[in-house]
Design goal:
The chain has helices at about 10-20, 25-35, 40-45, 50-65, 85, 100-105; strands at about 25, 70. By secondary structure, it is mainly α. The protein has one domain (about 10-100): P-loop containing nucleotide triphosphate hydrolases (Rossmann fold, 3-Layer(aba) Sandwich). It has a two-stranded parallel sheet. The protein is globular and about 35 Å long.
Length: about 110
């Protein structure tokens, strides 16, 4: 699942994964877990290309897993690090959309 922040990727992804009885994976959570840092630390580390390469590497590792997953992926500018591994007949790519008013109504601010 692709889409901007707060469009509902996690909510839809969790519901879909539950319905399909498969694992749900959120890229932001994987970044925090695998790189052992908060998203705020990650965003303030290096430049956008470096961060997208790190995220692309995580995406590729998860896609190579043998089990099926519903995967929530937040926007990435530099897709060359994972694009060829995600475009496949085995993967169904879905982009979620919503109105700006609905997206902004779901914004939750935190220290992170």
């Amino acid at each position: 699942l692709f889409g901007v922040s707060n469009v509902g990727k996690t909510t839809v992804g969790e519901l879909l994964a539950e319905r399909l009885d498969i694992k749900f994976v959120d890229l932001d959570e994987e970044v925090k877990k695998r790189l052992k840092m908060s998203l705020e630390e990650f965003v303030n580390t290096e430049n956008l290309r470096w961060r997208d390469q790190k995220r692309g590497s995580i995406i590729k590792k998860i896609i190579k897993m043998e089990e099926d997953v519903v995967f929530s992926i937040s926007p990435i500018s530099y897709t060359e690090s994972f694009k060829t591994s995600i475009i496949s007949d085995d993967n169904l790519l879905i982009e979620l959309y919503d109105t700006p008013e609905n997206i902004f109504s779901r914004l939750v601010f935190s220290d992170e």
